[in-house]
């Protein structure tokens, strides 16, 4: 097991953003996280990558409790997040951005060298090929890329990071159907062993290829099923408003 | 394959200036003086409790008068410097260009030089300090106002003109409101500068708290010095916070129609009412302006002997001092912040240090440094660097706060340490605009080299100050010409560099501090 969340509570203003949530993720598993806006999907991703510390409950990484401090930093280095807004540093080149994935383990002199000379070009080219980009883009500035290309660079950064767990927060939200399908198949391909994949999604029509589907509503887990076990009633309940 | 150098290197590389500075340090140290430095620092906690309030009031009065005068001169001259305006009102563009070139001269001289010239011409008058600041500041404000006017889109103006609206009405309606936010923001900044300049002129004998500070430091009365410094710090802090508050209030998009205008008029009325007691306090006598002016005779000024100066040494000394001070001042804030970043409690201390750096005039810092350093280039460069690092540091923090925090959070979530994440994300984001402002600041430092001449830094500044103080007019003119030429050249180079930076940097929506934006827009338009 890569990641386990036990009894996670994250308080919110009106109701808890996550309420007593339990979850286990195994190596090679590709998991989709469904839920309406405000259901707690982004919070769950943020707890999983360590950027939110839960109010109560525990996070286990490879069976060991993830504490704060250096040990947490080492664990975080193995968790890669593809953010909805990508969060790339716009001023860097593609190669520098890919190498940002190595910053957590690089000593300071490599961090500084990365700013003015190409480092690990072979590895970066490989990563670009893996995410389906032309290796000639290495020297291009992030600002000059299209949205779709930037998304692939962000994904490439996770691969450079050598992440064991890939998290993606609504990665398809702002893409046209064609780009969305390509990115999703790429993510599913990358999420196989030795990695694991957890993606939050808005769209119940894109669940093919996932091993498990989690339904989140009001911060609570509603179901944890295989895609073919899921029926339309469960999905309707997930997206129904609180009044109905 | 080409490789892009990351912008953040522009923040890191200047820090190498600290290596030669540190290498020079052991040779420049002299034995005694450390107990004096310790005494000075410990006196900060026990200032004398009888501050000279009148001296502070005089400095404030000088700052207020000179600021209002410079804003009036600057707004009027700035509007007249704009070819669009002269073409609309007079039907030709050349008066704007001519006025712009004429205004380059007053701008090129530091207020201290204006102070010394006016002191000779008008005698020891309270007006000297006011005019000494108002003249160069007015020319500076004019340039910024004109740059901004020229960078505004002309389409709305042309639309009104083609609908038959008279020229003046169209100008006021279309360009006025667009000019206002920038002018307000820049005006607030100039008021802070005026307070610093008024303190500095005091150090050179033109009254106010600067004179007190110099006397108490020279007579080693550190507790008195600190009572003035703390008072000045409180005034400066209140002023900076007040201006920031007004800027936020007036520049926010949601301000209701007319609110800004009405509040501005109210503020101007309050400031206008303050002018009367300020004039009484300073004992301003208007008839002084009518004469007699004691200009030197032509045969005193035009003598060949004055042109026989060791020009290469003087120019090289000035440039070396400028480079050392500018690089150190530029590099210190990012470096210090990066070092202290993991310890949040150090940051308020850094901010306080920055406040004192801004308010302590460089010649006084240089005097303090002389307790432990031999006179020469080093104390002068360190004093200039300390003062300007305070100013640059404030801007750097302002810019950093305005940066998008998300790329940094993303790196931290991937296990990157907080220092590396700060460097790679927000430092990269702010680097270009900070470099552009640094170029402008280097230009200011070049002018400021005159104020630290007294610690034996060499260069044109000290020759000029000595020639002016000893009525050696034959020397004044040539040195003034070379000095003005050098500062105008520096201004042109800094401008070109800024334009180059900003044109290569397509804005990505990261907000710049208002002042940076103002300078950036002006530079971009003229390219």
Task: Spell out the key features of this protein.
heterodimer, A: 244 residues, alpha/beta, four-stranded antiparallel β-sheet, 32% helix, globular, B: 527 residues, mainly alpha, 23 helices, 0% strand, disordered C terminus
Low-pLDDT residue intervals, each spanning 5 or more residues of chain A: none
Distance between the termini of chain B: 30 Å
Biggest interface goes to: A-B, 44 and 33 residues
State the shape of chain B: globular
Low-confidence stretches of chain B: 506-515, 520-527
Overall mean pLDDT score of chain B?
85
Would you write up a description of this structure?
The complex is a heterodimer of chains A (244) and B (527). The model of chain A has no long low-confidence stretch (mean pLDDT 87). Chain A is of the alpha/beta class and 244 residues long. In chain A, helix 5 packs across helix 6. In chain A, the strands form 2 sheets. A 6-stranded mixed sheet of chain A has the order 6-7-8-3-9-10, sandwiched between helices. In chain A, strands 2-1-4-5 form a 4-stranded antiparallel sheet, with helices on one face. Chain A is globular, with a radius of gyration of 18 Å. Chain A has 8 helices and 10 strands. In chain B, helix 4 runs antiparallel to helix 10 (167-206), helix 4 (53-80) crosses helix 13 and helix 8 runs antiparallel to helix 10 (167-206). The longest helix of chain B has 40 residues, at 167-206. Chain B is globular, with a radius of gyration of 24 Å. The two termini of chain B are 30 Å apart. Chains A and B meet through helix 2, strand 6 and helix 4 of A and helix 19 and helix 20 of B.
């Amino acid at each position: 097991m890569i990641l386990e969340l036990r009894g996670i509570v994250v308080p919110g203003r009106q109701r808890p953003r996550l309420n007593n949530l339990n979850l286990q993720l195994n190596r090679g598993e590709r998991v989709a996280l469904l839920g309406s806006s405000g259901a707690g999907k982004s919070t769950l991703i943020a707890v999983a990558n360590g950027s939110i510390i839960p109010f109560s409950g525990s996070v286990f990484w490879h069976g060991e409790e993830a504490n704060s401090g250096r040990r947490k930093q080492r664990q975080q280095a193995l968790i890669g997040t593809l953010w909805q807004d990508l969060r790339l540093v716009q001023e860097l080149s593609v190669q520098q951005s890919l190498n940002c994935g190595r910053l957590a383990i690089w000593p300071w002199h490599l961090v500084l060298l990365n700013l003015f000379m190409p480092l690990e070009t072979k590895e970066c080219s490989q990563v670009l090929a893996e995410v389906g980009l032309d290796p000639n883009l290495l020297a291009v500035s992030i600002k000059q890329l299209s949205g779709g290309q930037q998304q692939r660079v962000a994904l490439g950064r996770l691969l450079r990071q050598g992440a064991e767990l890939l998290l993606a927060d609504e990665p398809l939200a702002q893409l046209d159907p064609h780009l969305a399908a390509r990115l999703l198949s790429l993510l599913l391909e990358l999420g196989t062993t030795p990695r694991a994949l957890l993606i939050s999604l808005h769209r119940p029509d894109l669940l093919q290829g996932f091993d498990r589907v989690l339904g989140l509503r009001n911060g609570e887990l509603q179901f944890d099923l295989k895609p073919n076990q899921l029926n339309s009633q469960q999905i309707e309940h997930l997206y129904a408003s609180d009044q109905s | 394959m080409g490789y892009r150098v990351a912008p953040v290197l522009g923040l890191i590389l200047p820090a190498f200036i600290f290596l030669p500075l540190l290498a020079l340090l052991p040779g420049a140290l002299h034995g005694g003086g450390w107990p004096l430095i310790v005494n000075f620092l410990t006196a900060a906690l026990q200032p004398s409790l009888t501050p000279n309030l009148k001296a502070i009031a005089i400095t404030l009065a000088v700052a207020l008068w000179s600021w209002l005068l410079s804003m009036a001169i600057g707004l009027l001259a700035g509007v007249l410097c704009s070819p669009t305006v002269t073409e609309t009102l007079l039907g030709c563009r050349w008066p704007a260009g001519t006025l712009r070139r004429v205004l380059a001269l007053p701008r090129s001289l530091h207020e201290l030089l204006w102070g010394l010239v006016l002191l000779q011409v008008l005698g020891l008058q309270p007006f000297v300090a006011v005019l000494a600041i108002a003249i160069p500041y007015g020319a500076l404000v004019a340039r910024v106002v004109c740059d901004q006017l020229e960078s505004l889109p002309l389409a709305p103006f042309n639309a009104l003109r083609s609908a038959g609206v008279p020229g003046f009405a169209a100008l006021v309606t279309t360009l006025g409101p667009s000019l206002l936010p920038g002018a307000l923001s820049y005006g607030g900044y100039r008021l802070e500068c005026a307070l610093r300049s008024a303190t500095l002129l005091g150090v050179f004998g033109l009254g106010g708290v600067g004179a007190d500070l110099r006397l108490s430091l020279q007579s080693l009365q550190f507790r008195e010095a600190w009572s003035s410094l703390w008072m000045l710090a409180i005034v400066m802090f209140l002023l900076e916070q007040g201006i920031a508050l007004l800027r936020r209030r007036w520049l926010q998009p949601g301000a209701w129609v007319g609110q800004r205008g009405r509040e501005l008029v109210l503020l101007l009325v309050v400031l206008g009412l303050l002018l009367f007691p300020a004039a009484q306090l300073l004992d301003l006598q208007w008839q002084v302006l009518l004469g007699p002016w004691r200009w030197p005779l032509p045969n005193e000024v035009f003598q060949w002997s004055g042109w026989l100066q060791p020009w290469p040494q003087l120019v090289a000394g000035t440039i070396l001092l400028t480079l050392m001070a500018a690089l150190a001042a530029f590099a210190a804030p990012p470096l210090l912040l990066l070092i202290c970043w993991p310890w949040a409690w150090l940051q308020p201390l850094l901010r306080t240090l920055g406040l004192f750096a801004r308010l302590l005039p460089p010649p006084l810092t240089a005097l303090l440094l002389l307790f432990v350093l031999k006179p020469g280039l080093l104390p002068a460069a360190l004093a200039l660097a300390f003062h300007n690092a305070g100013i640059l540091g404030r801007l750097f923090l302002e810019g950093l706060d305005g940066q998008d925090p998300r790329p940094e959070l993303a790196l931290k979530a991937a296990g990157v340490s907080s220092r590396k994440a700060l460097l790679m994300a927000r430092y990269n984001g702010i680097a270009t605009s900070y470099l552009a402002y640094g170029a402008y600041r280097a230009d200011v430092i070049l002018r400021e080299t005159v104020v630290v001449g007294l610690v034996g830094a060499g260069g044109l500044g000290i020759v000029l100050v000595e020639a002016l103080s000893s009525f050696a007019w034959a020397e004044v003119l040539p040195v003034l010409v070379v000095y003005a030429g050098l500062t105008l050249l520096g201004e042109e180079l800094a401008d070109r560099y800024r334009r180059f930076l900003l044109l290569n940097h397509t804005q990505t929506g990261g907000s710049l501090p208002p002042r940076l934006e103002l300078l950036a827009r002006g530079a971009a338009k003229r390219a």
